[in-house]
Amino acid sequence: MGNLFSSGNEGGNSVLSKNAEAYVQNGIPIEAVSLRCEAFRLMNEAKEASRHSQLEYQSGNKSQAKLLSINKNNLYIRMNEKNQQAAELIFKHFNQNRSNEVIDLHGLYVTEALKYVEDGLNRCRLENLSQLTIITGIGNNSPNKIPKIKPQVEEFVRRNNLKVTYYDGHIVIDLSINDENKTINDRNSNECIIL
Description:
- It is built from 5 helices and 4 strands.
- The longest helix has 34 residues, at 62-95.
- Strands 1-2-4-3 form a 4-stranded mixed beta sheet.
- The protein folds into 2 domains: 13-94; 98-174, Ribosomal Protein S8, Chain: A, domain 1 (2-Layer Sandwich), CATH 3.30.1370.
- It is an alpha+beta fold.
- A hairpin with a 2-residue loop joins β3 (163-167) and β4 (170-174).
């Protein structure tokens, strides 16, 4: 679905509430929308703390800058926790009545979606399932109708040399090829997130 919580200055809260309303209209559980809104608020607080920290540092008040920097880091940690909780609710909501051979990534951010793809592939291999269908959508719920998840999932399968069949809105990965129960770990353990 992409990040609908823009930081536009057209009334701040009204932009946030319109975007939250769009999430609910697209089937995202209200609890997850609330968590996303809280994460968005925390992100803005962290950015403000970062800006103040830099100003304090530049004016020579290094101890106050350090405190603000620590606060910023704690806010980002809390933001990530809220987003993770939201992702778990969203994934559970869209996948509660699906078999283990199908995952639906609607409503997730790209990095969250890729984690669920990785987990789904590893689960399918452990359960000796022959395929995994990944519902990516075609971008109808993304800003400007530009898909965000599907291209990244396609890149993921290319990077991992997986046999795949492409369809509009979903892909099917063939796991019947014996790859000696290879587990997928496409995440870089030294990953750096720049916000």
